[in-house]
Every structure is written in C-alpha cells, then in structure tokens.
C-alpha cells in the first residue's frame, strides 16, 4: 500500500514569492494534517481536515497561508508571499479517525515532507 | 496549557546499553499517547501507541513504553540499543474527541556509538 505522498521534496524560492505544496494521503484516510517542523523541534500542527472540512486551523497564519482539500482527498498548502522565517519542513500526515468505546482512535502516517528554503 | 515535554534533548549511548527517554504531558482529560521515530533522512514513523487498556505498550524493534497516569508520563524504553536506533524520537499526545489537538514534544536525539 502506498504511503502519504508529498511533492515537491525540496523547494528553494526567494522571499515574497508564492509556493505551494501538495499531499496525497493514504487511500481511505478521512483525516489529513499539515504540520510545520523547524530544525531540532517537533512538528507543529497548521491545519487538520476531516474529509473536506477544516476542523482545526487555529495555528494557520491566515494572512499568508491557505489550504484546501477538494473532494476530501488530496490537499494543497500555499504560502503567499513567503518570508524568510517560513524556511522549514512542511509535513503532511493522514489517518483514519474512528470513534469507538475508548473514544477517538487514530494513528497518523507521515509523508516525507517538503523542505522549503526561502532566500 | 496543553504541552508535551521530553526530558533529554540529546542522548548518547554505547551499543547494548539500556535506553529510557522521558515524556511528560499536560493535557486535560483522557488521552492517546504516541512515540514516533525519525531515522536520518527518513520520515516520521510510529513506534508505538497507547489508546487504553494495559499501560505497558510494546512497539516495533523491541521498544516499549509505560503509561503512568498519576505522573502524566509515557516513557520509552529499550533494554539494549543498537547503532541502527540512532534517530530522533518524538512523544505525542491527543485527546479522545475528534476536535482535540495533537501535540508533539520537542524531540530527543539519540546517538548510539558502536
């Protein structure tokens, strides 16, 4: 079974330029996450989708970042315009979120990430 | 505030030494707990998880973790490390409802010396 696919793997742009990242989750996974990971730190959630709905975008800097998940499958994360401080690895993860007797049980599977360098 | 702390930023061990990486969390309510590993040049992979039941959880590659509710801890252990365990280890927590946030710790870098 294919894992989470992300592209591009690397991107170098100049500040003030736009950039977009694409993610294809594992087939059948209803939940999709975008994270930002700085060097030496843990992933920080940017946005989480349940199917097409963004259920948590409280950490997304909405003045320059946007995301969409059309048809509840693939997702795109965009930055416009990019700033120097946006240099980081952008991770996508997916899971099947179920709720049973023990409450929410979902395990995230991560893609390889996109390493963004803003010059 | 919700948070996850990992006691050690960088751990250096010799092969065959025992490993314990600390993880403490602050999160209201009942939680799910995870340890993820990131080997050099690879993506994050799940080592083990706790949802409910036996607080001692066994994962892949000989790792285990124990959930101690009274201490809000979920420490990772391995009795004998190998050079191939050199990696970054992340503890994570989320709540039991669909709208609870997932919080990751800052990570612990483990270097195993042959």
Description:
The complex is a heterodimer of chains A (119) and B (114). With 119 residues, chain A is an all-beta fold. Chain A has no helices and 13 strands. Chain A has one domain: Immunoglobulin-like, CATH 2.60.40. In chain A, a hairpin with a 6-residue loop joins strand 7 and strand 8 (75-79). Chain A is globular. Chain B has 114 residues and is mainly beta. Chain B has one domain (3-113): Immunoglobulins (Immunoglobulin-like). Chain B contains no helices and twelve strands. Chain B starts with a strand and ends with a strand. The model of chain B has no long low-confidence stretch (mean pLDDT 93).
Outline the fold blueprint.
The complex is a heterodimer of chains A (119) and B (114).
Chain A: E1 5-7, E2 10-13, E3 19-24, E4 31-37, E5 44-50, E6 53-56, E7 65-68, E8 75-79, E9 88-95, E10 98-100, E11 103-105, E12 109-110, E13 114-118
Parallel strand pairs in A: 2-13
Antiparallel strand pairs in A: 1-3, 3-8, 4-5, 4-9, 5-6, 7-8, 9-12, 9-13, 10-11
Chain B: E1 3-6, E2 10-14, E3 19-21, E4 23-26, E5 31-38, E6 45-50, E7 56-58, E8 64-68, E9 73-78, E10 87-95, E11 102-104, E12 108-113
Parallel strand pairs in B: 2-12
Antiparallel strand pairs in B: 1-4, 3-9, 5-6, 5-10, 7-8, 8-9, 10-11, 10-12
């Amino acid at each position: 079974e294919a894992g989470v696919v992300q592209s591009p793997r690397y991107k170098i742009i100049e500040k003030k330029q736009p950039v977009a990242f694409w993610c294809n989750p594992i087939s059948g996974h209803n939940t999709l996450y975008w994270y930002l990971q700085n060097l030496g730190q843990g992933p920080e959630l940017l946005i989480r989708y349940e199917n097409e709905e963004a259920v948590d975008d409280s950490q997304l800097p909405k003045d320059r970042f946007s995301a969409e998940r059309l048809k509840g499958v693939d997702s795109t994360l965009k930055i416009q315009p990019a700033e120097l401080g946006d240099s980081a690895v952008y991770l996508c993860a997916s899971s099947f979120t179920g709720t049973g007797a023990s409450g929410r049980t979902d395990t995230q599977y991560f893609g390889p990430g996109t390493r963004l360098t803003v010059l | 505030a919700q948070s996850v702390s990992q006691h050690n930023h960088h751990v250096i061990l010799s092969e065959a030494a025992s490993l314990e990486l600390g993880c403490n969390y602050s999160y209201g309510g009942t939680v799910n707990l995870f340890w993820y590993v990131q080997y050099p040049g690879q993506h994050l992979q799940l080592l083990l998880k706790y949802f409910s039941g036996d607080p001692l959880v066994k994962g892949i590659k000989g790792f285990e973790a124990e959930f101690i509710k009274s201490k809000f801890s979920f420490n990772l252990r391995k009795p004998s490390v190998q050079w191939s365990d050199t990696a970054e280890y992340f503890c994570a927590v989320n709540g039991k409802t669909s709208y609870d946030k997932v919080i990751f710790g800052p990570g612990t870098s483990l270097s195993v010396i042959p």
